[in-house]
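Re: [ENG-882] Designed sequences occasionally contain unexpected residues at chain ends

Forwarding the minimal case from QA. Structure tokens:
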């Protein structure tokens, strides 16, 4: 099963969630729903180099995909999904509030 960390208020995450409805191969973990989910995501984000660029540019790094082999990626395509087109409004969640 592929785990997807995200938030229901993130347009990129909503785009991903719409693609996986009814598909038991994916599990959504909403980091805004419970502090336990947020802590789990932050432990992953703090330690995994997949987030280095996101942290450097001030992005949150969601949606985040943890593949069945434990690989962490921020690319929907690597999880078998489509990425949200970049020209759509709010296509990037940034810590400074300039996205989403």
């Amino acid at each position: 099963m592929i785990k997807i960390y995200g938030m229901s208020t993130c347009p990129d995450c909503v785009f991903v969630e719409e693609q996986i409805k009814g598909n038991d191969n994916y599990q959504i973990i909403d980091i805004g729903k419970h502090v336990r989910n947020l802590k789990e995501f932050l432990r992953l984000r703090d330690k995994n180099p997949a987030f280095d660029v996101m942290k450097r540019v001030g992005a949150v790094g969601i949606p985040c995909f943890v593949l069945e082999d434990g690989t962490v990626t921020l690319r929907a395509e690597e999880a078998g999904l489509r990425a949200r087109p970049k020209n759509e409004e709010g296509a990037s969640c940034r810590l400074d509030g300039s996205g989403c």
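QA comment: On inspection the terminal residues look reasonable. The chain has one domain: 2-79. Proposing we downgrade this to a documentation issue.
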